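Milestone M4 deliverable, item 7.
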Amino acid sequence: MQEGSSCIIDQNDPRLAGQQVAFLLESMRCRLLIDTSAAGAGRRSSVYEEESAATPAKYRVYAALAVTDQKFLLVVQRFSQEGLKDHVPHEYVHLAFTDQSFTKMFLEYSNEERHTYLGITLPNAEQFLGPSTTHELGVPENSTVKIIITTYKAPDIAMHINRLMTSIAAEQCSIHTTDARLAGQKVVYLLNSVACRLRIDSMGTGKRSSVYETQDTASQYVVYAALAATEEKLIVDVMRLRKDSRPIEYLCAHFTNPLWKDVDLSFANNEETSQLVITLPGAERWLGPMAASQLELPPQSCIRVFIDTWKAPDIAMHVKARIGR
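Output delivered:
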C-alpha cells in the first residue's frame, strides 16, 4: 500500500451525513509547525517542527480535508521510517461553521515554482483539538499550530473559507430590537453588520491597540459595527474579525448627556458608499469599561469612528437635531 493512501475521508463518512461537500481532499503531504513562545510548560511532540528553530519533525505526515456547507473537517496520519505510526487518522479539526472557534482560524495560501500550499493556523490550538488528539500529539497549552498542506486547490479553499468567516462574523455584529438598551424607545435607525474603521487622530499617554489605525499605520483587524439611533440615545457596538466572540459596546449615550457638545458628527460621500464619521475627543469618557479595557484605548485619545452606510446623512442630521444643533 502506498504511503499516505490510508489517510482519507470517505464520502459516506457519518461526519458528512446530510451535507453538501464543497471540497474533499485525500492523502496530501502535510507539515505541522508549532509555536510555543506563548505556551506553558509542556513537552513538544516529535510530530511537530518548530517555527523558531531548525527542528525537523520525526514523522512524515499526511492529511485529508473536507469542507461542506456546514463544517470544516481535517484529519492527519503519521508515518515513520518503519512505516505506519497511526493505524487510523487523527481527527485534528472538526468544527461546525456555527462554532465560535471557527472564525478564530486563519487560512492562507502560497505558491512556489512546483507546489501550492494551504496554510491553516490554529491559535491556542487545544481549543480546536479534541482532548485525545491534544494528548496523543503532545500539544503544549497555549501553543499555536500551523498546518501546511500541499494542494493545487489551496487558493480556492482559502478564499472559500475566509469568505464564510467574514460573513459569519459580520452577521454576529448585530443589535436586535429586543436589546435591553432599546427598551421602551422608538428605534429610528438600525444598522447591523456594517464595515467600520477606528482611527486615533491624537493619542494620549499609553500604547496604541492594534485595532486602531493612525495616519501612518493600518489596523491589524477587520472591524464591523452595529448602530442603533432612537429618539433618546445612540448606540454603537464594534466587533473585530477573528478576535472577538461577541460585539463590544463602544458607545451608548443619551442625547441629554452634556458631553455631546464635544462630539462632531459628519458624513462623506464617494462613488461607492457613504460614511458616517463620529469624532470622540477624550474618547475614554464614552466607552464602557469593557471596551476601554479590551480595545486598549490610551487615556485622552481622540477617536474617529467611520461607518459605511448610505444612511449616513440621515443619521448625522437626526443626531444633531436631538442634541440641539
